[in-house]
């Protein structure tokens, strides 16, 4: 996550990111707490193991904090 605050002062986003997928598979964990990377960014990661072939969509959702809005991102993957 990168700072999306509107007050103009860089700050580290806090809180959690949750993960979901529309296909068959499992996550090592469904959410993770953000950890600071710089004065205005944070990160977390989760491992996903698909259990069926085909196209799938994985979504990450940031739940926001007092200075940062909620947001989400989606990526597609093709499992052979």
Could you provide a short overview of the structure?
With 80 residues, the protein is an all-beta fold. It has strands at 16-21, 25-27, 31-33, 35-38, 41-43, 48-50, 54-62, 71-79.
Descriptive labels:
single chain; 80 residues; mainly beta; four-stranded antiparallel β-sheet; two-stranded antiparallel sheet; elongated
Q: Number of helix segments?
A: 0
Radius of gyration using CA atoms only: 14 Å
Mean model confidence by pLDDT: 88
Order of SSEs, N→C? EEEEEEEE
Shape: elongated
Give, in spatial order, the strands making up the sheet with the most strands: 3-1-7-8
The tally of strands reads 8
Structure classification:
mainly beta
- Terminal Cα span: 30 Å
Low-confidence stretches: none
Oligomer: single chain
Helix proportion: under 10%
What proportion of the residues form beta strands (DSSP E)?
Answer: over 45%
Describe the main β-sheet briefly: 4 strands, antiparallel
Any idea how many domains? 1
Outline the structure in words:
There is one protein chain. By secondary structure, the chain is mainly β. 0% of the residues lie in helices and 50% in strands. The protein has strands at 16-21, 25-27, 31-33, 35-38, 41-43, 48-50, 54-62, 71-79. The strands form three sheets. A four-stranded antiparallel β-sheet has the order 3-1-7-8, with no helix packed on it. Strands 2-6 form a two-stranded antiparallel sheet. A hairpin with a 2-residue loop joins strand 4 and strand 5 (41-43). The radius of gyration is 14 Å and the shape is elongated. The model has no long low-confidence stretch (mean pLDDT 88).
């Amino acid at each position: 996550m990168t700072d999306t605050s509107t007050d103009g002062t860089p700050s580290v986003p806090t809180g959690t990111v949750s993960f979901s997928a529309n296909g068959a598979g499992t996550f090592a964990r469904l959410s993770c707490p953000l950890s600071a990377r710089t004065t205005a960014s944070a990160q977390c990661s989760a491992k996903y193991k698909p259990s069926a072939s085909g196209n799938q969509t994985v979504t990450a959702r940031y739940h926001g904090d007092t200075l940062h809005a909620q947001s989400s991102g989606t990526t597609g993957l093709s499992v052979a």
